Each structure stands twice: as structure tokens, then as C-alpha cells.
What does this fold into?
Amino acid sequence: MNYEPRIIAFLCTWCSYTGADTAGIARIKSPANIRAIRVPCSGRVSPELVMRAFDQGADGVLVLGCHIGECHYDTGNHRAAKRLPILHALMQFAGLEPERFHLDWVSASEGERFSRIATEFTEAVRALGPVAWRIAPGGWQAAAESLLPPEKEVPMPALDCAGKTDAIRAKAKELLTSREVGCVIGYEVGPRGRTRPAFAYSAEEADRLVWNPDVSNNLASYLPVKLKPKGKEPPKKVAVVVKSCDSRAVNVLLAENQFTRDQVHVIGVTCEGVRDGSGSLQVRCQTCSERIPVVYDTLIGEPPAAVQAGAVARADWLEKLPPRERMEFWLSQFDRCIRCYACRQACPMCNCPICLYERDDSIWVGMGIGLNEKRTFHLGRAYHLAGRCVGCNECERACPMDIPISLLNQKLAGEIEKTFGHRAGLIIAPSPIVTVLSGEYKEG
Amino acid sequence: MSKSNSARKRWLISQAELETWLDGLAQARTLIAPRQVSGIMLYRPVARSDEIAWHGQTPKSAHAGRPVLSVKEIFFPPTERLFTIQKTRQEIRLEETFPDWETVVFGIRPCDARGVKLLDALFLDTNPVDSFYARRRWNTTLIGLACKELGPTCFCTSVGGAPDNAHDMDIMLYETDGGYLAEAVTEKGRYLIPGGKWKETTASPQQSTYSGQFPVPEKGKWPEHFNDEYWLKISERCLSCRACAYVCPTCRCFAVRDEMLAPGQFERIRCWDACAGENYRRVAGGHKPRAEKGERLRNRFFCKFYYYPEQYGLGAASACTGCGRCIEVCPAGVDITEVLMALEKPA
Amino acid sequence: MNENPMLPYLGKLVEVRDLAADIKLFRVEMLNGGGEAFRTFQPGQFAFVSAFGLGEAPFGIANASGRGPAVDFAVARLGSVTTGLHELGEGDIVGVRGPLGNWFPMKKFKGKNLIVLGGGIGGAPLRPVIQHVLDHRSDYGRLTILWAARHPSLLVFTDEYDEWRTGPDTDLHLTVDSPDEKWDHNVGLITQLLEKVSPSPENTVTITCGPPIMIHFVTKMLQEKMGFAPKNNYVTLEARMHCGMGKCGRCNLGEKLVCVDGPVFDMEEVGGLLETFL
It folds into this structure.
């Protein structure tokens, strides 16, 4: 088939763009398929730019920066070197052929090198054929039912609910009566018998707090709003009941200055797992390796028994699928999405005042509830959570359409751990792919 | 227009006759019915009756028995193109695109049909008529299926509905031993019944005996609760996630914007939005009314039980159908029936 | 009227000029059928103006239909649509949907004195009132205009002040929060100017438009200090809108929709609303 791949190349002003110029001046041939977009630095290339290029029909995206150590801005290309491989892994996981997105380094004088890389990339993309990433409106139909294999059903372990309930209530009453805190955020059982977040402001209200197999919510998500209300005096200290995953969320929020350590009294509770809708152990609990909260002021509960390993069936199955089928799988998932943003709202780490994907002037993704937009939202959000997501899976539980979005976050958590040896929230440290301007952040 | 109960024609049909009929409808028109889509139940086009999910068998979800999204998405889809814009240096050309439609929807429960009627009050019965909703609505026939029992979060009987209420349908089916009692409620429905092939009957459907479980404060009682502390208290757990509004059969807020299709080519679309969102009312200058979660949650309940009925002439009825989807999907346990009960308590 | 109420008429920009810092006046001549729809519009109504490719936004119509047939809009550059509009020039095409909303009951105002209070770009929807009164001068009593802005560079319609102040039985008072060197009128908030003017409520109605906080304090002063009955104080309110026709549900203030029950309200109505406009 005769098709000419359309390649978008992000070239940095100081090195690779000049390198392309050098190639031109020296009359070294480069493919005409390359459409260059000049950026100040390769570090400027954010996932939104790359995904937008693919959303608009690019067959391939090439990012070329200065060689490491030669960046005009010192560490700008370090940023690209850290971030773009993570984006690459994510898009590959979503079904994009890995050859279509490439990061490389070209200096201003390396005209030959530019031409060689551009030619090789163009040929690699040509060999793959036209891209199937961008979906025309109304142009996607599910080829077949794309179902995830179910995870193993693991029964709930024995829990010491009564003991922990008593201990939580006692601690809450103590903190409230002594006025050390103004509010205790915990769990209660609602009128329908469903466990849900509770906010206790007095000793009587503390008697509503419970611990049971359904304490699924990540209560850390209420902390930023509660402790940093816009335009008002921050309230007194707040206590929050956390499981180990929630406690790691507290650490991530502290690393991101959402509030200060002295604003919160962390009531950590050891956790043997929480229940899902069918009564079995939730999938996320099947691979949890921290049963004891990593940060706490008060610790309730005994260290639980060892974890039963499991819960890799879904991720394994996806990894083994060929790219095209993986893409079909994800398209069938995103097709159901209604862009309600419940996933984002349930996430403790998603707290941008205006979400990038919901802005009125949104230039990276449209407002419509179409397939391309929904995919870009989910992939973009997963990318923004890389190194920050603690795997509480509340996003997936909140989703009214049962979309297994936590698989995206899990994938990136794995990539981050593989590349940087970092796991979100074990200590108070930001994600390794977040750029921290020097002088603003102090190890804590 | 629906006929009074006694004037409606009825037939007794078997499961096989129902399936044959549905297969025929699917051939001649678009037939939309509840079906399993990657593990959950949704209203989707079906090519044959055996694709229809009769009873939900969703492994991990609590939504068994009815689609997660209400039937509103058929008449008021999540995204709708209003028109396209061609922009050249010399001129601007607008081209309207209207939905081309002849549809039958099967398997609607009375709560969902009630929701459609409530949306009619807004989109059809209040000027100006919404051309997109109107075209879809006028070209769609509703075939209902009575519920044999109330689900765990259902409360249709508390808001003037009933699990076997045929009032808002074109055709209504009631499950009986070995088949169904089919009832033509409107002329539009009567038109679809295969004349002469079905066995007529004078039997009446067995009336359900469910009664309202939750007290609903009447419309006039809501204003006095506007400034209650209660709204701030219950809203603390709300995540402003908007799932409730999106699964609701009657929530209808939408946003409008232009999106680019290709250089010089745009489309103006409208898509779902919800008042629970924090930036819903933010103006360009930055001022943000309803900045407090409690104000937004209060607006949602007031709109459902006071504003919408006032604005669109619902009389004493509320805009809630009692389907209970909002209770099911809320990740933080906000419960509309709890709110209703709290308001009914003497101050 | 189109079958599709969301389809705008096309309009040509016959004039684009600077009104104030980051505020432009757009004069639109209707093209395809819009002329009929906009043949008569009332002071206080609004319309949606489209910057095609970006979107549309509601703007108060800033002239009286007697001074048409073109329609004026004053647009402050604040967001994506208004920035898009500001990049257009004379001859460019925009979309216009309207006229929408209710209007000032000019018939009811006949024979009465009128006090018009405009703050910043809030003055734009009041200009049709002023023009209408000046064009039907004998129908109305005394016209007092209080016009304010944060800074002289933000005052709108400065080149029309002479026409206004020289109208029969018409007064114009100006004030700014912070003056520049050339300013030789009042300095202070519009409420301070109002106190100076100290109008009598006798046979008088007021019309206020400006930032919500200004409307709040002006009407409070009129009602609490100067004896005006709330129902004689008219305001035009704003809210974020997407359809402007009472469908999308966004602009409600309690049980009223600003786009169909407003944007013109009297303060007795506003006081009875469940929600505050602030």
C-alpha cells in the first residue's frame, strides 16, 4: 500500500532544530514526511503535545533534543529523558506500536545524524502502515466482546472489627474532647447499611465511627480541601483514619505541599483488606505489601498475617496481547466512559483547581464525550499520576461504568519502580518525573 | 396520547412470539434494548432479540436488572453535534446536522419512561422546542417492561410512580406465566403491534401493591429548608464527582462549545455537564458562585424537587423518578432518600 | 426563526473600536435573516455572540434598537471566546443568537425620573436605556446617570458623555476609584458618588448594572439609606450561560433562570430568590 507517513517532529531550538538546518544546508537528504515543530527545549514536550499529535492523525511522533550534558537549559533534556519513556510505555500499553514514538538526541552540528534518525524513523513508521490510533467520529465499532479475565476470587480474611472500632472511637473522642483536633474523618455505616466517609466534630459524633470490611474510601482525598480552604482561615487540626494505602496518599500530599504535617493527626489502622461488591477481597488488596500504615501519629491494630500473592491475571493478560488487540480492548473500555470524572474526583492526588482536561480553552483535548477525547483524558490522567498514585483503586470503584482504569495506573507504577526504584508515598518525596525547581522543596 | 386503562387493547403472547416480533422490529428499524457491554448493562442497538440481556448478570456490579445509564442518553446523547462551521478567509458557512432516526426502544422500566416524560416538559413543552431532542423523541417508540419487584435502591412509588406504571409508554409488557400481557398504550404503540397475529385478551395486568416507602416533602415545603445547616453537613462526603447527575434519568444540564475537526472546519457540540462540578458556574473573570460543595449539593436536590418542577410546570410532581441509580453509583454514600427523610422530620 | 434555536445568524462586523483598556465595541450588521429577528429589540436584552471555532458567549445588547439596525456589543477580553473576538476586525463574520431574555419595562417607566448607575463594563447594557430615553425625551422625567470605573482607562463610552450630559433634564456624574493625572471629576466608589447625588425616591426608578458586589452595595444604599422601595430598583444580572433559552439549566438563581426570567429583575424579586446573585 502506498501511503506516506505523516511524522510530527518536536525539535529543540538549540540543538536538534539547528541540526535539521545543518542537514539542509549541507544538502543531506531528509524525508519530506517530517513536519517540524520547534520547541525551546525537548523538556517542554509534555504528554499532551504528543497525544494531541496522535489524536490529530500523526502516524509517528519524533522528539529530538540536545545530548545529555549539552542542554542549553542545563537539565531540560533530563526532563525529556525521564518523562517521555514513561509516556511511551503508557501509549504502548494502550495499543500504540512502540516504533511510532521515538526520543533521541541530535546536536546542532550533526546534520548527518539528524538525517539518519529521521530516515530510519520514517521507514520504521512506513513499515507499520497508517496509524490506527485516531478514531473518526462514529467510526469505531467493537469487533468482539473484549472482556478481562477475572481475577481470582479470594475470600475475606478474618478481621478484628470490634476491637478496631472501639480503639478508633476512643482515640477520636480523646482528640476531640481535648480539642487537639476539630474534626475526625473516619468511616460510618449509613442508613442503608453501606459504609461511607464520616466527619465527627464531637465526642457523641465519634460514636458513629466504625471499622469493618467495607472501609474502602481513601479518606486522604478530603484533606486538601479541608485543610486549605480557599480564601478562609484554615481550620484546626484534623484527624484522619487511614489504611496503609491511604497513608501513602498522605505522604504524597505532604510532598506536594497540599497541607503541612502538623495540620493532621494520622490515625493509622492496620488493614487485612477490604471487600468488593461480591463479598470477596478487593483486587488491590491481593497485591498489597504494606499492611501497616507508613505514616501515623496513632497506630491501631496488630500487624496482620502475610499477604496472599495473586491479582496479576488482568495485567498479565493485557501485556501479552498484541498491540492491535490491546488497543481494541482499551477502546472498548473508553467507549463506555461518560466523562463524569468520578475517577478523578475520588483520587486524593487529583486536586488541580481546574483540571487540564476540563478547561474552557482546552487545547489538548476537546470537551465532547467522544472516543478520542476520553482516551486522551484517561491516558493523560494516568500519566499525571505516575509516581504519585498509591494504588488505592478508588478511581475504579467510583467508576459507574466499571472501567478497569486502575490497570493504567498500575502499569505506570511498575514503570516508575523499574526505572527509578520509586514507589509513591513510602516516604515524603515527590514523583521522580515531577520537576522541582531548586530551592522550593526540602526533603522531609 | 395514552388511552385510559380500560380502553387499551391487550394481547397475550409467548416468549417466542415476543422474540419473533423483536427480530422483525430490529430488521426494519433500529432496535435498542438492554444488553451486556463488556460486563455492564447498557441500552444499545441490537440486531437480534437474543442479544438482549433479560436479567442482568453482571459479576461485580450492583446494577443487575437495569442498564447503568438511563434511557435519556438515547434522546439527549452525551455529545451531540449542533452544526458544523466551515471557515475560509472569505466566508463562514454553517451546516446543520440533524439526527436521522427511526427507533424502537425495548425493555424500558417505568422509572426511565417517567424520566423521558419529565425531559419532554423541558425540551418539547417549553419554547423554543429543542429540535434534536424532538426529532429523536418523535421518531422513537417506547416498549416498556413492568418490574416484578422493586430493586434495593428503588423508590419510584414514593414519587408518584409504580413498578408497573404504563402511563409513559407506547406499549407495555407485563410478565405472566409462560409469556407476557402486551398492552398498546398509545396510537404510536398500536401501530407496531403485528395485527391479527397476536391473541387478543380482555385480561387486565395484575396491579402491583407497592406503596411509597419514603416521604417526599411537597414542593412548597422546600424553600424553608434552603438555609439549613444540613446541606453543609451532608455535603462533606460528596466528592463533586457528578456520577449521580450522569446516571440520572432527568438531569439535563449541558455545555456548548466549538471543537476543531480539521483546519478551517469546526463543529459546535453540546455535551453533558452537571451542577455538582466545582467550575460549573465559574465566569471568565474568575468569580465562582456555588464555590462551596454544600451549595452545589443543595442545588442538585432543590433543582430536582423544586426548581425544575417550578420552571417547567410539573405541577405537584417532582423531577425525580425514584430509580435509585444515584444511590447505587455514589462512591461516597450520599443518599437521596436519606435527604428526603431528613427534610420531612419536624424541625 | 430557525428550526434549530441553537443555530446563530451570521453578522458582519461593521465597526470595531476600543472602548477602554481591553474592552472593545463591536457593531454587527445582521446578514442572513438576523435582520428580521433583530428588527426590534428592547433595552436590557442580550444575545450570544459567536467567535466561530472557539464558541459563543452572552453579551448585553449595548444600543437601543432605534439607533440600529446594527447591534452593538461591548466585549471585555477575559476568556477564550472574548480573546477570539478581540482578534477580529471590521469585515469579519461573527454569529449572533437572539435577542434573548427579558427587558427593562420602559413603558412602566414613562413619566418617571430615572437613575442609571453603571459600573465598568456593566454600563454597556444600560446604554440602550440612556439612548432610548434621550430619543423619547418627553416620555420620561429627569435622567440622572452615575457612571463609574476602577480607573479612567476603564470608563466606557467616554465619547458619548457630551451627548448625555447635554440632553435636556439630564445629569451625568462620573467617578473612578483611582484617578490619573488628567482626571478632574469625582474620586471614590459609586456608592460615595450616590451619597453625594442623594436622589429622592419620589416617582423615581433606578437601574443598576455592574459587578455583583457593586449591585449589592448600591441597591443596599438606595433601599436602606435613601428610602427606595426594592421594587423600584431594577438590576440586570449576569450568570454563566450556555444556551440562553432556559434549557441547559446553568444560569439558575434558585428557581429563576437568568436567561429567561431575567436578566432584568427588580430587587423585590431578587430579594425573594432563594439563591443570592453574589
